[in-house]
Amino acid sequence: MSRKHFLGTILILLAALGVQAQQTERQYLSGTGLGNTVTWQFRVSEGRGSGRWSKIEVPSQWELQGFGEYTYGRWYKKPGVKNPSMEEGTYKRSFRVPRDWQGQNVRLWFDGVMTDTEVFVNGQSAGEVHRGGFYRFSYDITDLLKYGSSNQIEVHVKKHSDNRSVNAAERKADWWLFGGIYRPVWLEAKPAVHIERLAVATSEDGTVKAEVYLQGVTGEESLMAELTPLAIETTSFSRVGDTTPVRVVKDAPMQTLTASWDGIRPWTPETPNLYNLTVSLMDKEGTRTIHSMTTRIGFRTIDFRPRDGLYLNGTKLVMKGINRHSFHPDGGRTTNKELSIQDVKLIKEMNMNAVRSHYPPDTHFLDACDSLGLLYIDELAGWQNAYDTPTGTNLVREMLTRDVNHPCIVLWSNGNEGGWNVELDSLFRTYDPQRRHVIHPWADFDELDTHHYPAYLTGVGRFTNGYKVFMPAEFMHGQYDQGHGAGLEDFWARYTAHPLFAGGFMWAYSDEAVRRADRNGELDSEDYNAPDGILGPFREKEGSYYSVREVWSPIYVEPLMITPSFRGEFRVSNRYLFTNLKDCSMRWRVLRCASPLHGTNEGEVIPVADGGAQAWRQVVDSGMVQLPALSPGETGFARMASSGLFDGDILELEAYGANGESICTRTFPIHYAKDYLQREKAALLGKANNALQTSASSISENDTLIILHSPAVTVSFRKSDATISSITRNADGQLIPLKDGPVAVGMKMVLNTLSARTEEGAAILCARYRGAADSIVWRLTPDGLLSMDAVLLNRASGGGGFDDAFTDTEVLNLGFTFSYPEAECSGMRWMGRGPYRVWKNRIPGANYGVWQKDYNNTITGESKDRLVYPEFKGHHANLYWATLQSPTAPFTVYAASDGIFMRVFTPEEPHGRQDGINTMPDFPAGDISFLLDIPGIRCFKPISQHGPQSQPGIIRIKQGDEGLRLNLMFDFR
User: Fold this and answer.
1) pTM, 2 dp
2) Superfamily of domain 194-297
């Protein structure tokens, strides 16, 4: 017998023995998601591509395939719009099923269709119309199929439902409305006698209670369970108690199976240990498996305790969460497993441990939450409107029977912001043997207050003065560049200080800009409606991404300043829920950063993930930090030992979790700005003699100008107000167009006297003022370096820079501004905190280093093509030096004072912002500014409802104060 015939005989024998029938067989009629599709025949009733049979990829949203019309869910708020796009689509394709499926039970499954779905197989109805676009549903088509030959399927889909409550719950919503079969379609074949589904409850102690739903049993069968770890076990586990099969009861569609194992490893978001539970239906003798079903489980105990908290395995949870939609610009709600894994990893990189959505997500996203470790709130859709009871009853069943076994799910949610039907609440426990708690987002319901967008001082009956567990299901709204990291440090410190706080969920994960097939691929975020993400539509990282990552770091470095007395010891806090710091690690590096005075290309070039930013640094010394063995919630001292610490400029601390993944990088300056600048100048002067220093600087004047001359640079000042009129590079006569400053920002400053002199070879111009500025002294040295030494707020009288110098005065921006044409600028390299721009209340996450950004005009959240991050324009913190790059007119500025913000141009406001209301606080006049204070940016709530770090700066001038110094040095050579 040939090998081919031998193998064929074996397969026939195995089939005869029923081996094939043991497992469920699946055959896809579509692809599996974005990037993996199958072509069907398609016709749409109206809009683009209507009135004719064509082809479409399945799964997909038909708008992105060139059919129908795009509609955003707030259509009902637009004048004159009575209904959204209401296309109907018809899908067709032929398929074959194996001949040996005859005699088995075959079901046709749809993982998600928008929205009313009517199905025909071989011209016959498969069942009732399904209504509801976010849910998995199926039909028993056993008797409709032709086995071993060709079959025809026809699916009729209505984008707008015939059920008013479905439209109210799903179509009047703050999201894009799509149509079509957008999740996979498949066939499943099981034996006629089979396990229909499993609903499992587990406990951290290793106990399993499985509700086993059966079909076709006679009462002579039995059930048995087997457990398999999904990772290499470091500890052994064993079955406890009776291991004999459990006899099935005839005519009982659900059987309960219980079992316990010793030595299992519990599931937590920090240790997502998983097991496969296989339940087998055995024949009368218990020797043959009729059918088996495997589900992935994690052993954990979820426990909500009123006026206490939400507990996981006996540990009180604080959820650091984000709201996420299933969305991608190229697929709409059609996604894939790779995207789900990417999203979970990005969420965890921000040190978040929880996610919420407005509807059940793709199962592969829940799988990723299970395996990578994210807590999940699974929500019945209902964006401010609820399903009616008959429809909602069906959809609760579909949602829970699909998702019930996922260990990541810790809460169920019944609708959103009024979109809850209270008659459905009890159904959640009907389908969930774990009896997880049900919330009504935005409501104070069943002892859990989920109030949305609370103010910093939220109280009086809730939270501060309340007695309910508090968990805002939405907070820190991130429209455009607002929110998320802005003010989070204040909010989080206040919230976590309260024992009834259970966590919060930011809005939202990514900007939902769809790539319009009708606009040549243009990205459309529906003006201000959809750009709410902490990530861009293609998962570009915005500034708040890094801010949240630092604020929510589970290994928290307490505020630290490096001084000569620093001996390598600093305080750390363990903000994990389950992990001891002894299982984590931290690396320290001492970095040296050169200035343009003697070159910045020394050292290592480190690319940054987004926007083309780079860091130039030289590692002087490095090693591992000795972390203390701290339990969650404890604070102690970490230690490092570096003999070369003060030879560097920056101390970098990078923390790693127990899995070895980086969780946060913090940096701390070793030298103050003035000390750093003096060192760099000394290094320059220590090189070969500079010929330019052999000639002294000089002064000239005319009717309107005082002119400072050096061999390298000439600078002209106006006599009327002591502002710069022009700067010329003498070597080639090139004008450097930094001018029309310094102009006072946030204070009054009126020129009083102006005098000039030479001193030690330098040309000096001294301007004295009435108001908040006392004086500005300009010094042009023979080598062409121009310094600016400004003294501010050093007296309580003499003209006053504010309305009343003895009272507290609010200041948004404080400093000086200049003009510089934006068209001249090609980029910026600087030493300070970066690479992202900052706001007063969103500085965490910006690290010290030498950074490079090419010029861009990204409008955060709004672009017709891919967005470019980091944004170029805006405030940059803790300036040491910056080179404004230009093909003709570059210059470098150095800070000799600490804490200076450098403003570079004015970011453009989003054109689609609501009613023309600006999203950002006002920037100073001019183009380039050097500031001692900048404003915070709002986050949904006005600044007055934020915490202290968001509030305007307060200044009080007292007689005898030394005042403030804002000292700079410019290099125009």
Assistant:
1) 0.94
2) Immunoglobulins (2.60.40.10)
